[in-house]
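Schema walk-through. Below, the input block comes first and the output block second. Nothing else is stored per chain. Lengths vary across the set, and this one has 679 residues.
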Amino acid sequence: MTAELVRGQNHPLAQARLEIRITADVPVVAGAALSDETGKARDDAWVAHPGAPTLPGIEVSRQAAADHRLAVDLAAMPEAVHRINVLLALPSGAGGPLRFGAVTAPRAAVTGLDSTEIARYTLTGLDAESAVVALELYRRQGAWKVRAVGQGYADGLAALFTDLGVPRADELAGGIQEAVARGLARSVAAPPPRPADGDRTRRAAAPASGTDQPGSASGAADPVPARPAHPYEASSPYAAQTSAGPGERGYEGAATGTTQSAAATGSPIDYTHPNRGHATAPPPPPQAPPAPPGAPAPPVAGDAAGWSLEERLYNQVWGMFEDLARTTAAYRSAVDFADSRMEKELDQILSDPRSRLGSAGDAARDAARAKRAQLVDQAAAVLDRDLAQLTAEAGVVEPAFPPAYARWDNPVWHGYRVPAEPPIALRLGDLHLPESPALRIPLLVRLPLERGLWIDSGPAAADVSFLDSGELRQRAMEMAVAVAARVLAAHPAGDFAAHVIDPAGSATRELAPLVRAGVLAAPPATGAAGVTQVLGGLTQRVDLVQMALRGGAADALPPGLDTARQLLIVNDFPHGFDDRAVTGLRYLADEGPSVGVHLLMVADRQDAAAYGPLLDPLWRSLMRLTPVPDDHLADPWVGHAWTYEPSLVPPGSQVLDHVLTQVAIARTKIKERASDQAI
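--- output ---
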């Protein structure tokens, strides 16, 4: 039962892993400040905020939003931490409200990982305050409790941090507001109320709680949780993944390291999400023409909340994934209920000697089977209705995709031009379920990538009986080239530099499009010397950028250092790698993403078995993809086994050469302009 707290009231917390959900009618900044037994934060490193969102045991949002989910692991809290203060603030200089008294009271809820609410608190009574301590999680005699605080500060975050004893409170508050201003275009308005059955309202990309569920054939079907954990979605480190294949990384610990962005240090190198210069409210999504009474509204591309069409399409795809997961779960639950009900009735018939034999028994058995068929037919009708609507929606969404979201056979690629700014997400393939194999949900992952990619070139889990080992490795490398080309094409010219390690030179044919277009930073490295040179250069770059960001001296980087993001493609690992090279590769996989170095590996787990457990941390830190359709992706929300299909260039298509040529031309123009300016 949920505890409805009032100011000053507390409630015990029996679970260690929790989510704190913040809901407001306007975008707000959410953070958390840790404090010791005296209630004071020892320094600004004890504050989790959009510029530094991760601390041991807690992760907050990277942006201002109307809905937030803060992940908390009380068991991972350091012994010195006795209190966790959940903070809310209004963004400054964004044209929005300047005080909480001008908006509807925000709401805070503490939930378990299964979305069950433990306690909630509505922050009423606020007036001139622009920052507030909403909740306090505190340790008392070895147990944790939550207290509703609601302490507001009219002078904003600076006064709040001063009260908590944070050194340089003004500087920290200014840095947070600056980081929020840079990413304010990522903020998402509160989701509108759900309309009547037959229509859906898309929620924002920032995960938000919800209770909308599609109908099922029987009210006795198991309830479906509020929202799924999107495959490969890294917004929360506590969404555990189960995998049928080796090398899978569980979501647990997806963001265990602290990432310090340049936005928090004033560095010109920005490795946070790409900036958006919007300072006004997002435009409303397009409205579909009115539908006849009783009929579902016709689908419209971009009907979700968001600041731009790109973000609305991303949110819409997320909503499609949720809807497909939910309606399929409801169908399976209804079928399971119908089966169990029929089995129970049949057991009752068999247990009664009077009805076991004869016409009465046959009639009872026929009636039980008829009830089961009726329930299944009702569930199938609801499923078919939802699938028809989702299929129609997919038909209007796919043609509206920008290149970063589009399949390679989408005509948008033939009119491709190098973008002026990066996208918020990238398509890595498609997902579908056995009940609807024709309905594909795009697998969009947020950028920048928080972990590397591993393309499995071995028959670990997929049914590849139609391919020999050589063909499978070839297809895996073709997929790697397609992913690398999409990464380069989705970013402005010069934003990414690509490197290739091909120790045996076995992927010369597959790498030809990248080499021919001249988009690689250097020719593919071969042999042990080439492996050492590339890994050494990228490792040095990671070290230099990390030291510069930590020291707040990003402008003191060596003049010749390439500040663009780096993509390293490794083929046929671990061939050509000695122990030192393996250690370097693990270092890049762990530390590289936070400073703009990303890893794309093509490897067979079985080939690396000789290294034993040494490589387990490396495999678990990478996102596993397959070059052939495979159902290795398990959804912990409802237990679905999603089938992943890679995004490959159609055979014989020239679209890859066209796109890479445009990227190369744009890079040449940038170099020419830089040369002219130098003269």
